[in-house]
């Protein structure tokens, strides 16, 4: 895909030659381009890391309307010194391994890619202040499974409330979880983040930036306060920012608080694929079975009746399936 843009490269004076053999994806369009990774985007300006230096860049014209998002691996030309006022150009975006997408809500036809190339979706939820929103967690889980990302449930503010009730809801789904509290030990979190790129999502005020600051001492992310009357955060973080974990042990992406997680882009039949054990039981389902609660002859019901499926796991799966299409959050 990437090279399609190269063919319309208006910055090359030479007309594109007819290709005699197919180009491979790896073939660079620009010989002098260097590799970079997008750490943040601000009004059409991209901050990249190139050889450990922060480098400002803009999109080169050949990329056209193609979006460039945090986490994208890119090729850049021009001034990559990182000096004040220097500006380079992104000429190529490497094919993405994963894309985290959401729509503003379920009626919004515009699907936005929030982050590229993250392997893990950290669903950050405060146990109190603001109150947990199980529906939002469910919807984020659906997005993670749909994107082929490993979900991690991160329950913050355990100094304010007990995590057990919330955890019991997610146990049967087999989702990994960590619990954090003010001043608490972060070893379990570090272990889960180690060696991969993770993106944090959650409502405003749940403590995403607080956690990033604790994990990356040089991060200096702004932290807000939660309104004691409304229980809402103040949307302190306004753009996604990717940071390297100490010891080059992976990457963490802080994102602005979300109010909803629009899933209009998720096809219902993809969710079951994230649960191979359940998927196996749906082989004899009638054509077009959604495996939902109200399906008359679903294999999941057969399996529960026969005792081969854990009823709690089936109902948790169905809760997620239903969460996909309920536009409450
Ligand atoms: N009691 C308690 N407060 C916490 C904890 N973690 C974060 N906070 C507080 O929660 C408030 C919001 O924290 P932020 O880190 O700004 O939250 P955020 O998720 O980044 O919010 P947005 O950027 O608005 O999306 C701050 O006042 C933090 O001090 C915790 O474990 N316990
Ligand atoms: Mg924040
Ligand atoms: Zn079925």
Structure summarized in a few sentences:
With 329 residues, the protein is of the alpha/beta class. The chain contains eight helices and 13 strands. Its EC number is 3.6.1.-.
If strands are numbered along the chain, what order do they take across the biggest sheet? 10-9-8-11-13-12
Number of strands: 13
CATH topology of the largest domain: Rossmann fold
Rg over CA atoms, rounded to whole Å, is 22 Å
Can you identify the CATH class of the largest domain? Alpha Beta
Q: Could you say which overall geometry the principal axes of the C-alpha atoms support?
A: globular
Range of helix content:
10-25%
Q: Ligands bound here?
A: guanosine-5'-triphosphate, magnesium ion, zinc ion
Q: Given the helix and strand composition, which structural class is it?
A: alpha/beta
Q: What is the tally of helical segments?
A: 8
Q: Which CATH-level-2 architecture of the largest domain?
A: 3-Layer(aba) Sandwich
Strand and helix order? HEEEEEEEEHEHEHEHEEHHH
Number of domains: 3
Question: Biggest β-sheet, characterized?
Answer: 6 strands, mixed
Write down the overall mean pLDDT. Answer: 88
Q: Which stretches of 5+ consecutive residues score pLDDT under 50?
A: 1-16
Distance between the termini: 34 Å
Give an overview of the whole structure.
With 329 residues, this protein is α/β, with parallel strands linked by helices. The chain folds into 3 domains: 34-93, Nucleic acid-binding proteins (OB fold (Dihydrolipoamide Acetyltransferase, E2P), Beta Barrel); 99-254, P-loop containing nucleotide triphosphate hydrolases (Rossmann fold, 3-Layer(aba) Sandwich); 268-323, Ribonucleotide Reductase Protein R1, domain 1 (Orthogonal Bundle), CATH 1.10.40. The protein is built from 8 helices and 13 strands. It has helices at residues 2-7, 134-147, 164-170, 187-193, 208-215, 276-279, 299-306, 311-325; strands at residues 34-42, 45-50, 53-59, 73-78, 88-93, 99-103, 111-116, 120-126, 150-156, 176-179, 196-201, 241-244, 250-254. Strands 10-9-8-11-13-12 form a 6-stranded mixed sheet. It has a 5-stranded mixed beta barrel with strand order 1-2-3-5-4. Helix 2 packs across helix 8. The longest helix has 15 residues, at 311-325. The two termini are 34 Å apart. The structure holds guanosine-5'-triphosphate (GTP), magnesium ion (MG) and zinc ion (ZN).
């Amino acid at each position: 895909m990437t090279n399609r843009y190269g063919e319309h490269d208006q910055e090359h004076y030479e007309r594109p030659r007819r290709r005699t053999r197919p180009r491979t994806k790896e073939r660079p369009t620009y010989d002098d381009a260097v590799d970079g990774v997008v750490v943040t985007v601000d009004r059409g300006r991209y901050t990249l890391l190139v050889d450990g230096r922060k480098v400002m860049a803009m999109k080169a014209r050949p990329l056209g309307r193609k979006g460039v998002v945090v986490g994208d691996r890119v090729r850049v030309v021009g001034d990559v010194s990182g000096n004040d006022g220097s500006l380079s150009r992104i000429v190529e975006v490497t094919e993405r391994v994963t894309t985290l997408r959401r729509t503003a809500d379920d009626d919004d036809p515009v699907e936005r890619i929030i982050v590229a190339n993250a392997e893990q979706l950290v669903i950050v939820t405060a146990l109190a202040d603001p109150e947990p929103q199980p529906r939002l967690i469910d919807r984020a889980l659906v997005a993670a499974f749909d994107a082929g990302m490993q979900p991690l449930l991160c329950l913050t503010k355990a100094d304010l409330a007990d995590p057990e009730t919330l955890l019991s809801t997610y146990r049967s789904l087999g989702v990994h979880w960590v619990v954090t509290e003010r001043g608490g030990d972060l070893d379990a979190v570090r272990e889960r983040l180690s060696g991969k790129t993770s993106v944090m999502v959650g409502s405003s005020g749940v403590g995403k930036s607080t956690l990033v600051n604790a994990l990356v001492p040089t991060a200096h992310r702004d932290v807000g306060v939660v309104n004691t009357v409304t229980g809402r955060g103040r949307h302190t973080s306004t753009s996604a920012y990717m940071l390297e974990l100490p010891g080059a042990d992976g990457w963490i992406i802080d994102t602005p608080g979300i109010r909803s997680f629009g899933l209009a882009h998720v096809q219902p039949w993809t969710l079951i694929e994230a649960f191979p054990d359940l998927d196996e039981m749906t082989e004899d389902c009638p054509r077009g079975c959604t495996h939902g609660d109200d399906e008359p002859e679903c294999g999941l019901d057969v399996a529960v009746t026969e005792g081969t499926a854990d009823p709690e796991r089936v109902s948790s799966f169905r809760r997620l399936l239903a969460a996909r299409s309920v536009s409450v959050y």
